[in-house]
C-alpha cells in the first residue's frame, strides 16, 4: 500500500469517525432554521425546509400540542426580544458616552447669555 493510499484510507476512517461523533452528539435531531413552504392536506401539516426536506406532522396531534407550543414560543420570543432590547440599550449608551463632550458644564459666560431655564 502506497503512502497516498494509506492517507486516503485514514481520511475515510476519520470521516467515518466524524459522522459517528455527529450522530452521537445530535442523535436523530432535525433542526429547522427556516421553512420554505407550509400547507395542510389529508389531515397532515407539511413543512418544507432546506429546499429539499419535508416534515409531515399529523394535525390531530399538532392540535393537541398547540397550547404548549404557543406558550413556549411566546416565552422564548419574549426572552430573545428582551435580550436584543438590552443589547440596543447598551449600544445606545455606549454611543451617548462616546459623543458626550469632555467639558459638559457651561462656562459662566454661557450661563449669563442663556435663559436660566435652559441651563
Feature tags:
119 residues; three-stranded antiparallel β-sheet; single chain; 3 helices; alpha+beta
Itemize the secondary structure elements and their pairings.
Elements: H1 3-26, E1 35-41, E2 44-49, E3 53-58, H2 59-99, H3 108-113
Antiparallel strand pairs: 1-2, 2-3
How would you describe this protein?
The structure is a single chain. This protein is α+β, with helices and mostly antiparallel strands and 119 residues long. The protein has helices spanning 3-26, 59-99, 108-113; strands spanning 35-41, 44-49, 53-58. A 3-stranded antiparallel sheet has the order 1-2-3. The protein has 2 domains: 1-30; 31-118, no CATH class. A hairpin with a 3-residue loop joins strand 2 and strand 3. Helices cover 60% and strands 16% of the residues. The model has no long low-confidence stretch (mean pLDDT 85). The chain starts with a helix and ends in a 6-residue tail after the last helix.
- Report the end-to-end length measured between terminal Cα atoms: 87 Å
Considering DSSP H and I runs of 4 or more, what fraction of the residues is helical? Answer: 55-70%
Taking all Cα atoms into account, the compactness measure Rg is 30 Å
* Average pLDDT taken over every residue: 85
Q: Gist?
A:
The chain is an alpha+beta fold and about 120 residues long. About 60% of the residues lie in helices and about 15% in strands.
Amino acid at each position: 500500500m502506497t503512502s497516498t493510499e494509506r492517507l486516503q484510507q485514514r481520511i475515510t476512517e476519520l470521516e467515518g469517525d466524524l459522522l459517528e461523533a455527529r450522530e452521537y452528539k445530535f442523535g436523530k435531531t432535525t433542526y429547522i432554521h427556516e421553512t420554505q413552504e407550509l400547507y395542510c392536506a389529508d389531515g397532515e401539516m407539511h413543512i418544507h425546509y432546506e429546499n429539499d426536506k419535508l416534515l409531515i406532522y399529523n394535525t390531530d396531534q399538532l392540535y393537541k400540542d398547540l397550547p404548549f407550543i404557543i406558550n413556549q414560543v411566546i416565552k422564548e420570543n419574549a426572552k430573545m426580544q428582551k435580550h436584543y432590547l438590552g443589547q440596543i440599550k447598551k449600544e445606545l449608551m455606549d454611543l451617548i458616552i462616546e459623543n458626550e463632550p469632555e467639558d459638559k458644564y457651561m462656562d459662566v459666560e454661557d450661563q449669563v447669555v442663556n435663559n436660566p431655564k435652559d441651563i
